[in-house]
Amino acid sequence: MPPLPPDLPGTLLLVDDDPGTLQALQSLLRHDSYHVLIARSTQDALARMADQVVDVVVSGHHTPQLDGVDFLRRARQLHPETVRMVLSASTDLASVTEAINEGAICKFLSKPWDDSFLRASIVECFARKAISDENLRLDQELHRANEQLARYNETLKSALEEQRRRLQIGERALRLAKEGLDLVPVPVVGVDHAGHIVLVNAAATRLAPAGTWRIGSAACDALPERLPAIVQGGIGATPVEALFGRDWQVDVRPLGREERRGVLITLLPVDPAGLLADFHGTH
Predict the structure, then answer these.
(1) What is the pLDDT of residue 2?
(2) Pick the CATH number of 184-281 from 1.20.1440.80, 3.30.450.20, 3.40.640.10, 3.40.50.300
(3) What global pTM score does this model have?
């Protein structure tokens, strides 16, 4: 039988009140890559298991203080991750069978034992422990991943709530800005960076014939004659006579501080009295 593969766990606890049995087991396993611990009583065994991690326990059936099967039941309660095996000369298997059925014992081997079969059984127990450890590790990773996902979902939920709140604030701000512009008594028209009309206040709507300012249309086509050339001419105020029956100062201002996003066109009447009268007449 080959020694235990080096990548498998290797802490083995041998429990028996018979020194000859312990010596024989140590001699049998001396070439295998186990870290072997010896306990000559179940109390000593429980103390060793409390002090360090034990992967596999091989216990005699009849031991002082506690029966070997009862000891392994106790070991299962305290250290459920440990794989447990009984080595017994007893022919009364009722208690052993019960313990196997309830999961306290992984394997039962009788004395005298077959060396090859005993070593193979111990290797199998360590392999089972390795699988159990890997499953536990995967469960822990899954738990951590689920916790991380839950935190991410909470963060995403908070971010979406904040975005929704900002959008609501932005929508209210836009409505207020639109209402504010509609209260301005002079015509105001906004043109975006692509040259499309994106804003027309109430004064501009009242000033021009229906359909003059069409939101989304190209400014060069939608703006009244002479205005496109003024907008393309640059920033500042330009006098315009006899537009919609009045003389104006057409003021063009850029939108966007760091990146130009368009222009705001304001028609300032040279003689505002008539325009103000029209404005107050509609409010």
Answers:
(1) 42
(2) 3.30.450.20
(3) 0.57
